[in-house]
Design a protein that fits this description.
Shape: globular
Order of helices and strands: HHHHHH
Number of helices: 6
Largest sheet: none
Pfam families: ThrE_2
Protein name: Threonine/serine exporter
Subcellular location: Cell membrane
Strand content: under 5%
Family: Belongs to the ThrE exporter (TC 2.A.79) family.
Radius of gyration: 18 Å
Structural class: mainly alpha
Number of domains: 1
Transmembrane segments: 27-45, 51-69, 76-94, 114-134
Distance between the termini: 56 Å
């Protein structure tokens, strides 16, 4: 039951953030589905492998690939789908814990949480990097095949 509640909340948070940043109405549902897919990959990897870093990389990679497909399908820029889909993957809770620990004087725990935030941010960047690399590789291969035919 908690998984269903999480799924609804992830979708609603993405749609809400999309409305907040004025996404076009025709992109909201697809952005929500891209976000939900990325979060589900994150959740499955995190639960089964207990690796938040690898889960973040794969979740963001999924968001990146699906955003590319969504942008081609809707004929809209990729960033329209990337930005709201990242909402569930951003380490906001850990960043809050860093600030709270610094304010209360617990610097050891603050350092630990800060390292976690940095790794998660790096994982998000890495996931997008891999997705874009795969997209560029596909485009070059497609161009090469078309040139070979002519």
């Amino acid at each position: 039951m908690s998984l269903i509640i999480n799924i609804v909340c992830v979708y609603a948070a993405t749609i809400g953030f999309g409305l907040l940043i004025n996404l076009p109405r025709r992109a909201l549902n697809v952005a929500g589905l891209v976000s939900l897919s990325g979060w589900l990959v994150y959740y499955v990897v995190d639960v089964h492998l207990s690796s938040y870093l690898f889960a973040d990389i794969l979740g963001t990679f999924t968001v990146g690939i699906l955003s590319i497909f969504a942008s081609r399908f809707k004929k809209m820029p990729v960033i329209i789908f990337n930005i709201p889909a990242l909402v569930p993957l951003v380490p906001g809770g850990q960043a809050y814990q860093v600030m709270k620990c610094l304010a209360t004087g617990n610097s050891a725990l603050a350092k630990s949480n800060l390292v976690q935030v940095i790794f998660i941010a790096g994982g998000i960047a890495t996931g997008f990097l891999f997705a874009e690399f795969l997209n560029q590789l596909y485009n070059r291969f497609k161009y090469y095949v078309i040139q070979k035919k002519h």
